Amino acid sequence: MKSFAVAALTLCVAVGCDRAPAAGLGDSPRDAPAEAAVVQTPVTKTAAIEPESEPEPEPPSLETRAEALVQTMEALAELHTASAKDCDGLATGLKGFAAEHHAELAAQTPELHAWIDGHDATRARLRTAMGTVMTGSITCRDNAGVQAVYATLTAGK
User: How many domains does the chain have?
Assistant: First the structure.
């Protein structure tokens, strides 16, 4: 008799009993009508997936900025050397140089100068370039074109 009860119970579970469910038990999807058994998943709007933006580039190091400044000053020294006897040529060259390198020259900071002061080789290169620039500037100090360029460059300071 026990094996019959186990078989009946297994059959009832596997295929479902024909009896009406007991009170409070009709909540399973198996007991609901077929059209009500459909489970609906709510649709939610999601933000469009945007590709990751490129990370901001690191600002150049003080060493990189110092090297760029020294190279700029060395180029300015070369301009003064090339125009040593042609002050009108120097004035014209300075106008172009200032237009090309204005942002770089304006971006100097006390930290940059402190870094240069702390590195002998860099400081020596900058001083050599500045000495050449000063010599050329003194040579052409009375030239109206050179004076006009320097006045324009120092007007905002």
Answer: 1
